[in-house]
Specification:
Blueprint lengths: L1 H21 L4 E6 L7 E2 L5 E2 L1 H13 L2 E6 L2 H10 L4 E6 L8 E3 L5 E10 L14 E5 L3 H12 L5 E5 L2 H9 L5 E5 L12 E18 L4 H15 L5 H8 L9 H12 L2 H58 L3 E6 L4 E5 L10 H4 L4 H4 L4 H15 L3 E8 L6 E10 L8 E8 L1 H21 L5 E6 L4 E6 L8 H4 L10 H17 L3 E9 L2 E10 L12 E8 L1 H15 L9 H18 L2 E10 L1 H8 L1 H18 L5 E6 L2 E6 L5 H15 L3 E2 L4 E2 L2 E10 L5 H17 L5 E3 L2 H23 L3 E10 L5 E12 L3 E3 L1 H8 L5 H22 L5 E5 L2 H4 L4 H12 L6 E5 L2 H4 L2 H13 L3 E7 L6 H6 L4 E4 L1 H5 L5 H16 L3 E5 L4 H10 L3 E3 L9 H9 L1 H9 L10
Parallel strand pairs: 1-4, 1-5, 8-9, 8-10, 27-28, 30-32, 32-33, 33-34, 34-35, 35-36, 36-37
Antiparallel strand pairs: 2-3, 5-11, 6-11, 7-10, 7-11, 12-13, 12-16, 14-15, 15-16, 17-18, 17-21, 19-20, 20-21, 22-24, 22-27, 23-24, 25-26, 29-30, 29-37, 30-31
Helix pairs in contact: 1-9, 2-7, 18-19, 19-20, 24-26, 26-28
Length: 1013
């Protein structure tokens, strides 16, 4: 009896569940795409993957129905944003996306961005991708993060968006791309793509989970978070099993098997069979429904694509009809046998026979022999070769009974179709041929006269008719024979005719010589002439009307010489652009016009980045070639009314008048920088130039030329501060900031001369196991006599790109070396004294020898001196950097990598450079106790250092909790306010002497697992 009730209960529950499956009221629309193993569509067309398995398990627990929709990631992004999808799988939460989407508190997993390369790719580092074609997933977070990373280091790869990772991989295989960006989980798919490999270039860890439309499905989001939080703690949960299935975790737990045993013990054999049958039916229904949903979506997509194609075809047909109606030519569609099928366009006036009379007739019966046969042969050749054929035919027209010449162009429409057709375009070229024949005759006559007379001589009557023509025919508008008897108004431009007739009338009236200068297009080209006109009293043989004699001399060469002299004074010899003087004249004129008309004028100051390196590497001829190419690219981007000039060196300036809005200028700057960033072949090398642009706008010409140039120059400085390939507008803050910066640099120069304003403070580096001081970092301080203490971040950042960085760096190293030597003599020196060295100091090829000389002067042990460098210092040329560091480490100077993990952490650096210590950035340390993401990054850095035999030191340690977590993760060294703030030399000396200080810090070492329990 009890057994029967249990069977009935099972059946009832399954029937209720089946009813729920069929219901649409509780259905959640879920977007899935190809991103194995996170989410994908299997071989049977069904959704699968880590996110799908987890979501299915939650749906069973919550009683939801899931309606999976297969599409591209870009479509998922858009439809979820619109609310047309309820859940987006495998979405990373970012600050920008939170404006459009909601995200759960519990992510599914953490992944990194990673670069995929061909196995034989020369790319070994992020710098190598500068200018390369890199594919990213459209609207994908890893692609966005990659663009931020390369922009941070001033790199400019060509980003190409794709709808799927599969498309990116195939594009790399075909050579369309040089590299592709994926997430680190998807890398397991690379075994399916021959010749591709996941590189060592990784970046930007991200948390991935489910995304939801903004402001909707709060209950669904909370339920998913609740189950994820619970299952992540259970090693035998659906979450753990899914992670294990896709190779994302290790095995653990036997909960499923134990649950299965308990269920089986509750049912007898008959009940088990019934339950299995019912469950099987349920699973079949679920599977069939998923297939129907997927196939329905595909059918709807095909229907929509068909509607779109139909609309495009109709528009194309309408456009073709409009175009052919505008043709002056006769256009026929014909078959392969030369039968007329259809005429396109309007009825031409030169068609002698009605269109209906020609339809269906072969061309041999319409055109007189042998032209019909020639056209038929042209049709055959067009069909055979697939190329257009052109021929010329001449015969008497039925319309005017005159011989006409026709040009016939035959082009195949469907050369491989069973119903082959051609388009024949017929043009009447009779007038053109006649003119050509006449021109040939004129040219022969002009050649004869050109050898006899350098000047042109004419006799004209008072009406302007040519009576006699002699001289160089190459300078005449027509042949002498054609000119005689014709009026100048039939030959010369209207304006020139008016000037000539006025001069003729004055000469006839006064008898004086009239002079005239004019420009005329003649067979020799556009030429400049000086004419003298005189009216003689009588010309032999001509007495019935008045005449004048006109002698015209070609002065083109003289004017060109004069223009060349002017050009040398006003134009740049290398680029052909206006020079500084010419540009100032143009700018003054533009500002005057702006004041009168109330217009705005924009001045764009453009400076090439790293131009000096081109000259130094390949010589000045290569630099000149680069300047010419840049000038051509700029001119090709500007309006006809814009003016571009070269002021000198690598500096260009653009005058953009009649500015409508600053948005147009921003668009122009984007176009310029994009165009200039394309590679240029200099013959002996290829460079990818970049430029910086500063923009200043004068409204209604309210500022002077000098002030506008000054403002543009300040804006250019601001753009260069932001990095290579940037542009910036001038604002009033720039003037104040520039003044402050100039004042600061002047004060610092005086401080370097005075010698007593700059000093060092020292912060200890503590062994996390013993509390012993194992190292000290030297930090520069500036005590201004009037302004007090000036923060290091304020003055060091300002001088990075100035000449002062070298004397300041020298002063810091010398002070640190002297203090180290003092501690060594007292027998209390720490294991190392660290000094941070800037990227610009490393660019000095003598830096290594200078540093060793300063250490030798101080008589300190080089093996105790530690050089701290950031990743930015190595980006410009790792080979030069490695050479410098090789010299230093050869003398036992230590090398540590500062702020590791915040930029482009390439394995190439760690492999090629002799680092002995990695410094974990304080941004990760600050979040290590409350952010599992930061904790995992720190764990990875420490593990990397351990595997490479490098010590790891955490900077910015401020709390006991942070120290406990660091110790638990295996970090050996710490530095931060928890132990001590930076101190003056006297205090640090006392600490090094006092053993009780070490005991105090030893007592501050917190148990490693105290805050992890």
């Amino acid at each position: 009896m009890a057994s029967g009730r249990r069977v009935f209960l099972i059946a009832a529950l399954l029937i209720a569940l089946l009813h729920g499956v069929d219901s649409r009221a509780e259905s959640l629309r879920v977007g899935v795409y190809q991103n194995y193993p996170l989410v994908y569509v299997d071989d049977q067309g069904l959704p699968a993957g880590l996110h799908v398995d987890i979501l299915n398990a939650i749906a069973v627990a919550e009683g939801w129905t899931l309606d999976y929709r297969v599409m591209t990631w870009a479509d998922i992004y858009t439809l979820t944003q619109r609310g047309e999808l309820d859940i987006a799988t495998s979405m990373v939460a970012t600050a920008e996306r939170r404006e459009w989407f909601d995200f759960g508190k519990i992510p599914v997993a953490t992944l990194w961005g990673q670069v995929v390369l061909p196995v034989d790719s020369p790319v070994k580092s992020l710098q190598s991708l500068d200018g390369a074609r890199v594919g990213v997933l459209r609207a994908g977070i890893n692609g966005q993060n990659f663009q931020k990373v390369v922009a941070r280091f001033g790199l400019a790869p060509r980003i190409v968006p794709f709808d799927s990772y599969d498309d990116i991989m195939k594009a790399i295989q075909t050579g369309e791309l040089d590299a592709g960006v994926i997430n680190s989980f998807w890398a397991v798919n690379l075994e399916d793509y021959e010749g591709l490999v996941a590189s060592d270039i990784v970046f930007s860890p991200s948390k991935v989970g489910f995304g939801y439309p903004r402001g909707r499905h709060e209950d669904v989001r909370e339920a998913i978070d609740r189950w994820l939080a619970k299952w992540k703690k259970d090693p035998d949960s659906p979450y753990a099993r899914a992670m294990l299935q896709y190779g994302l975790s290790t095995p653990g737990g036997e909960v499923l098997e134990e649950q299965s045993n308990r269920i089986l013990s509750w049912l007898d054999a008959g009940e088990i069979i019934l339950a299995v049958v019912l469950v099987t039916i349920l699973l079949l229904i679920l599977r069939m429904r998923a297939r129907v949903t997927a196939q329905t979506g595909q059918i709807m997509a095909l229907l929509e694509e068909n509607r779109s194609l139909s609309t495009d075809f109709r528009k194309t047909a309408e456009l073709l009809e409009s175009v052919t109606h505008a043709f002056p030519d006769l256009v026929w569609v014909m078959d392969a046998q030369g039968h007329y099928i259809k005429r396109l366009g309007a009825q031409p006036t030169h068609l002698a026979r009605n269109e209906q009379e020609l339809i269906g007739k072969p061309v041999e019966t319409v055109l007189p022999p042998p032209y019909g046969h020639q056209v038929l042969e042209a049709i055959g050749q067009a069909m055979e070769t697939g190329m257009m054929q052109t021929l010329s035919v001449s015969f008497e027209s039925r319309r005017d009974h005159r011989v006409h010449t026709w040009e016939v162009r035959v082009s195949p429409i469907e050369p491989r179709s069973a119903h082959q057709k051609v388009v024949a375009i017929v043009r009447d070229t009779t007038h053109v041929c006649t003119l050509q024949a006449q021109r040939d005759m004129d040219n022969r006559l002009l050649d004869a006269f050109a050898r006899a007379m350098p000047d042109l001589g004419f006799i004209l009557n008072e009406k302007g008719d040519y009576v006699t023509v002699i001289g160089d025919e190459s300078l005449l508008a027509d042949s002498p024979e054609n000119l005689i008897g014709r009026n100048i108004r039939d030959v010369l431009p209207e304006g020139l005719c008016d000037e000539l007739m006025a001069s003729i009338e004055r000469s006839l009236a006064t008898g004086k010589v009239e002079t005239l200068e004019y420009t005329l297009d003649v067979p020799a080209g556009a030429r400049h002439f000086e004419a003298r006109i005189v009216a003689p009293q009588e010309i032999a043989g001509i007495r019935d009307e008045r005449h004048v004699v006109l002698v015209s001399r070609d002065v083109t060469d003289r004017l060109q010489a004069e223009n060349q002299i002017r050009r040398l004074a006003y134009f740049d010899e290398v680029t052909g652009l206006p020079n500084r003087k010419a540009f100032h004249d143009n700018l003054d004129h533009a500002l005057d016009q702006a004041r009168r008309q109330g217009n705005s004028v924009a001045l764009l100051m453009l400076d090439l980045d790293d131009f000096k390196a081109v000259n130094d590497t390949w010589g000045h001829p290569a630099g000149d070639r680069l300047l010419k190419d840049v000038a051509q690219r700029i001119r090709g981007t500007l309006r006809a009314t814009d003016v571009v000039a070269r002021l000198g060196g690598d500096e260009f300036v653009i005058l953009h008048d009649q500015v409508r809005n600053v948005g147009d200028i921003a668009v122009l700057c984007g176009k310029l920088l994009s165009l200039l960033a394309e590679p240029i072949n200099l013959g002996n090398g290829v460079v990818t130039p970049r430029a910086s642009i500063g923009i200043a706008v004068s409204e209604a010409g309210e500022v002077s030329r000098a002030e506008l140039v000054r403002r543009a120059d300040l804006a250019l400085y601001r753009a260069k501060e932001a990095g290579k390939g940037q542009w910036a507008f001038y604002d009033e803050k720039l003037s104040r900031q520039f003044a402050e910066q100039v004042s600061l640099l002047r004060d610092l120069e005086q401080a370097l001369e005075a010698g007593d304003q700059l000093y060092l403070e020292y912060q200890p580096q503590i062994d996390n196991e013993t509390g012993r001081i194992v190292g000290v970092e030297a930090l520069c301080r500036w005590r201004h006599p009037e302004k007090g203490m000036i923060p290091p971040g304020q003055f060091i950042r300002q001088i990075e790109d100035t000449h002062l960085i070298h004397p300041l760096g020298e002063r810091i190293v010398q002070m640190a070396a002297a203090q180290l030597a003092e501690w060594e003599r007292a027998g209390i020196a720490p294991d190392s004294l660290a000094v941070n060295i800037s990227a610009r100091q490393f660019n000095n090829r003598h830096f290594a020898s200078q540093l060793l000389m300063w250490l030798d002067d101080a008589q300190c042990d080089p093996s105790r001196f530690e050089v701290e460098v950031t990743e930015t210092a190595m980006l410009e040329d790792i080979d030069d950097f490695a050479q410098v560091m090789g010299v230093l480490t050869g003398e036992n100077v230590r090398l540590s990598l500062d702020d590791f993990g915040t930029g482009y952490s390439s394995m190439i650096y760690l492999q090629r450079l002799p680092f002995y210590k990695l410094k974990i950035d304080q941004e990760f340390v600050r979040g290590i106790t409350r952010n599992s993401h930061d904790r995992e990054i720190v764990r990875a850095i420490i593990g990397l250092g351990r595997n490479l035999g490098m010590a790891c030191i955490a900077e910015g340690v401020e709390t006991a909790e942070q120290l406990a977590v660091l110790r638990a993760l295996g970090c050996q060294l710490s530095q931060g306010y928890y132990f001590a703030r930076p101190q003056d030399a006297a205090t640090m000396t006392a600490w090094l002497k006092d053993s009780s200080v070490e005991a105090k810090w030893r007592s501050m070492l917190v148990e490693p697992d105290l805050f992890l329990r």
